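On clarity, I found the account of how folds are encoded harder to follow than it need be. For illustration, here is how one protein appears when written out as sequence plus structure tokens:

:::
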Amino acid sequence: MVVGVDAGATTTRCVVATLDGAVVGRGVAGGANRNSSGGEVSGTLVAALTAALGAVDRAGVRLGVLGAAGSAGAGREAFRAAALRAWREAGLSGEVVTVTDLEVAYAAGTAEPDGVLLLSGTGALAARFAGGELRRRCDGYGWLLGDEGSAVWIGVRALRAVLAALDGRGEPTALVGTACTHFGITPAADHEAAAPAADHDAVADREAVAPAADNEAVAQALLAAGFAVAPAELGRLAPAVSAAAEQGDPVAARICAAAADRLLHTYDSVGPPPGAVVVLAGSVLLRPGPVSRAVRAGLLTRTGAEPRAARDGACGAAALAVGRLAGAPVPPAVHARLTGVPAEPPRASGSAQEPSAHEPRRE
């Protein structure tokens, strides 16, 4: 058997699988990104491994591939040390291979050696693969310095717009009520059913209902709530921002449009070859919404084919483990059984299609 782990910033998933692609165990734990999740990485990995192994005979596990967000560059050695410690604590003795979340996400969507991964979940980036090797990546620099178009990027910009609406620097927006609901804060009277104001007179009328002091109290409460959570948690606002955009809020719509533009620019920046297989990963791109629609439409124009979905990064890691153990690329049938992704990429049908409403496995 092999083990595959996808350690994301908000969720860590683990699968145990046989060499012919049958999944015999699954486990889930919290986030394991040392930059944005908080907590102790090896402890999270142990929890996911232990849950997946269950009553499985640990002596039958020959190899594990563990991938993690934030494990490239300076984070590589720290994650490997945490992975080895967790592997031992889980009672395993087989070989351990550590990679980034890029490899496991791409492998979750295709067995093709050449193509591009575009990811937008807690973080965001694009990565180009050739011959099964990562050749170039763009972005993925974390919530503070990059991850443009990610769920956290969307959440942070929504909160900025909310604070600007509250102190008068920005236009009124339904996102004020959205943010208050998200954090359990009672909004000022003029934001209980927030809607865009059409003119300055309307703004003045609304300010007369709720004095600036009330807005200041709400702003300070939101500020405290936002800083009280791990940065990765701010990405949980993204679905509500998408919903507000769908309901016609112009501020939310602009945030979503900007996120899609940033993601497509990141895709273009890795230099994808013509007709490249594209794998989408992350909740922002796998859930229905304005960002995923715009990105899919842009990719269809660029490639002439529908992108594939990386439904389960842990199964992608297991597929890599099967291939590594065999010393050859994972057979397409085994990959399809593990990941649920068809062996051949779907071709364009003439229009971008809405992604299925499955629960994304990559966070």
